[in-house]
Amino acid sequence: MRKQNIHRDEFLRCKRCGKERRFHLKSTPDIKNYHDALNNKCWTCSLWPYQKITCDDDEERSSLKASRGCSRSSTCQGCSTCYCEGCIKCRFEDCNCQECRDFMLYAKP
């Protein structure tokens, strides 16, 4: 049986070239990388954390983009199994974004 994943893969668009890059949200450091990139208004392909790439590198094929890591359906668009609106793994105390501040302020222990 596969390990259940509550955070599906997400994509972020480069501000320079407009290509979408995949972020795997399988561990806390991966989630933090995505969170930081999402909050960076000038994020570019060269800042992608998995390997060195540039805007000249090809974008992931659309057929591969359809699979986001949901354990229920390979082409899921976001269900209660894989989509998280906020949990202790994806909200950070040291972050000043509105989502993290609200979560830390109002979350029940």
TrEMBL record:
Superkingdom to which the source organism belongs: Eukaryota
Coiled-coil ranges from the UniProt annotation: none
Start and end residues of each ULTRAPETALA1/2 zinc finger domain: 7-104
GO cellular component: cytosol; nucleus
A Pfam family of this chain: zf_ULT1
Name this protein carries in UniProt: Protein ULTRAPETALA 2
